[in-house]
């Protein structure tokens, strides 16, 4: 039998497979599970245990960013516009969200 806390976690946790590597994306705000208003700007953490990741990445997610804030003069396929796979995974839940890596170098 599965423990009730495994079926209904206290904190938001997602197990991810990003580019063939497994990782954990999690938050420390329990309201993110039950109150849609907390989905405006919030923090998530990502850890995959790989050698190149020396510490947990602290990400700030803004779900109300505006598409007109992006520079439209650049080709979206250019290397400067390439987005890390973790960001693309986050956008499967929060489409159009911007992700700030808070000083951590984004990894692909």
From TrEMBL:
Residues 63-87 are annotated as: Disordered. It comes from the Eukaryota. The keyword ATP-binding does not apply. One of its GO terms (biological process) is proteolysis. Pfam families: MINDY-3_4_CD (PF13898). It catalyses: Thiol-dependent hydrolysis of ester, thioester, amide, peptide and isopeptide bonds formed by the C-terminal Gly of ubiquitin (a 76-residue protein attached to proteins as an intracellular targeting signal). Keywords: Hydrolase, Protease, Thiol protease, Ubl conjugation pathway. Residues 2-103 form the Deubiquitinating enzyme MINDY-3/4 conserved domain. The keyword Hydrolase applies. Its EC number is 3.4.19.12. GO terms for molecular function: cysteine-type deubiquitinase activity; K48-linked deubiquitinase activity. Residues 63-85 have a biased composition (Basic and acidic residues). InterPro entries: MINDY-3/4_CD (IPR025257), MINY3/4 (IPR039785). Hydrolase that can remove 'Lys-48'-linked conjugated ubiquitin from proteins. Belongs to the MINDY deubiquitinase family. FAM188 subfamily. This is Ubiquitin carboxyl-terminal hydrolase MINDY. It comes from Fregata magnificens. The lineage of its organism: Eukaryota, Metazoa, Chordata, Craniata, Vertebrata.
